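Marked as duplicate of an earlier ticket. Keeping the data here for the record.
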Amino acid sequence: MLPLKMSGLNLSSLLYIVLFVFSFSLISCSEEKIETKTDRSSSLLKSGFMKADSGDYEGAIEDFSMAIEINPEDSIAYNNRAVAYHNLGDFSKAIKDYTQLIILNAQNSMAYNNRALAKVELGDFRGAIADYTKAIEFKPAEAEIYINRGIALYQLNYLDSACLDWSKAGELGDKRAYVLIQDYCQAFNPKPQTDSLK
């Protein structure tokens, strides 16, 4: 039997071309699938944002959850779902999502801050203080975190520490700190700066 030839190609060359074309079309299909997943995830995030903005937190949670199913490392979806849970008062689920954010980025100071806020809502002031302290480690110039940690410290009757945090927040420019100091730190007298005394 003679080898099959077509335009100077034998059967094995033709098979190679067919396999190459088939492989190329599979690559193209998977790229389209990736683009479709990305587009779908992006669409779900936008829909979730709109629902959250209108107060439909349950609908937003559904959209953010579907976006997470598409991309389990989508920190934007986790963050916004956590905020939606927080707004619904489901602080345990918010904490789980904030924890996942921290797993995805251990230096995410706002995830620590927000997880601490949820812990405060559950009465876990010690856990909140630990999270605020970690957030300050990554963002030492963020006055809001000092305000929040001061409130948690105050709840545990650590008045001096709370007043020091509020004083630091005031130094960083947050005027709310001075109201807190005035209302809760009347007996507190910070030590004068010694570098002006020589």
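See parent ticket for discussion. The first strand starts at residue 5 and ends at 6.
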